[in-house]
Specification:
Order of helices and strands: HHHHHHHHHHHHHHHH
Largest sheet: none
Length: 365
């Protein structure tokens, strides 16, 4: 799996987002304070965006907080509301906060909940994930998109949305501040957020139209919707009986984050060795953290208060990260040059929804 981005593919996505302006000279003062001063404008903007996205979620309960954060980031950037000085802090939030959120995501996963689904459902979910992952990568290459962008979109749609994009991005050993990598990461996150948000509106009425029982509707939603928050929102609208199977099925996909990231990292190491470059870690530290908390949750009884606090912290971190990623998107350029990426996202969404629906029918009680 080549990981370098072909020159023609860079051109095909280079206008999706605005380039990063050269940073100004660091502010005067002791060296230990310079980085904090550089990051402060972006951190303040991210904090305000998290508060605004939470308020939007409270007012319109069907709009997930994370979706609102991404939309606010896109709007703020395209309306010229963000100063250039905010960019370093927003980049920091988009990478470091996202990875910290992935670590905390491990506390959501219990092997007991997954095993309760039964072998047929687990095999169905893993099969749907594998077909979607491979099919999205193949289609991305056919559309002339870069291998890296195709891989990020495939991970986001087949596994767990923005969290999977962050994990695979880390496994690729991307250099911080790489403008082309930033554009592609923001594009992948934007696509999974767009399609996941559409799923909240589309899938509950479609499930009723198809006559799916609540349990099977929940399994379908869990197997095909991207982010955990989007799954919860979609299943809630589909009926209270759909929520538990939806979350359990979704957690099977979350567990697959680790082996997929490990496979990407292993392939990256081999290519780096062949090219004489420095090898990235076999597994990024934040994926190891995810596995550690997942093992903790499975081995001991974590107090409900600790789980609730970790869930809140995770949502705050993800919201700040998605605001940072959204602030890199330029809608005018996206509408003009991002048609192939948008086609890839919509096709991948249709692929996972169709295959998972067939899988639910085949494994129905």
């Amino acid at each position: 799996m080549p990981i370098s981005t072909p020159h023609r593919s860079i051109r095909s996505v280079a206008h999706l987002t605005e380039g990063v302006a050269p940073s100004s000279a660091p502010p005067p003062g002791p060296a230990r304070f310079r980085r904090g001063r550089t990051l402060a404008p972006g951190m303040i903007a991210a904090a305000l965006a998290v508060a605004a996205s939470y308020a939007a979620h409270r007012v319109a309960g069907t709009v997930p907080m994370l979706t609102a954060a991404l939309i606010i980031g896109v709007l703020a950037a395209n309306l010229g509301l963000l100063p250039a000085a905010a960019r370093p802090g927003l980049r920091f939030a988009a990478t470091k906060f996202m990875r910290a959120g992935v670590v905390l995501l491990g506390l959501q996963v219990s092997f007991g909940d997954i095993l309760a689904l039964g072998a047929r459902t687990i095999v169905m979910v893993v099969t749907v994930l594998a077909v979607t992952f491979a099919g999205t990568r193949w289609l991305g290459r056919r559309l002339g998109l870069s291998e890296r962008l195709s891989l990020l979109v495939a991970a986001g749609f087949s596994i767990c949305g923005a969290s999977a994009v962050a994990a695979v991005d880390g496994a690729l050993g991307t250099r911080p501040g790489d403008p082309d990598a930033e554009r592609e990461t923001a594009t992948a996150v934007g696509l999974v957020t767009l399609c996941g948000s559409l799923a909240i509106v589309v899938m509950p009425p479609v499930a009723r139209l198809l006559g799916l029982p609540a349990y099977d509707a929940g399994r379908w939603i869990g197997a095909s919707v991207h982010d955990v928050g989007q799954v919860v929102a979609t299943a809630t609208l589909a009926g209270s009986a759909a929520l538990v199977p939806a979350v359990a099925v979704k957690l099977v996909r979350v567990v697959m984050l680790a082996p997929i990231a490990a496979g990407v990292a292993l392939r990256t190491r081999r290519v780096s060795l062949a090219a004489g470059h420095r090898r990235p870690a076999l597994l990024p530290a934040f994926v190891l953290g995810f596995l550690g908390l997942m093992a903790l949750r499975s081995a001991v009884s974590v107090p409900p208060g600790a789980l609730a606090a970790a869930s809140t912290a995770r949502d705050v971190l993800f919201a700040a990260a998605l605001f940072g990623l959204g602030s890199a998107v330029r809608l005018r350029e996206l509408m003009r040059t991002g048609r192939r990426a948008l086609l890839l996202g919509l096709t991948s969404w249709a692929l996972i929804a169709g295959i998972s629906y067939a899988g639910v029918l085949l494994t129905s009680r």
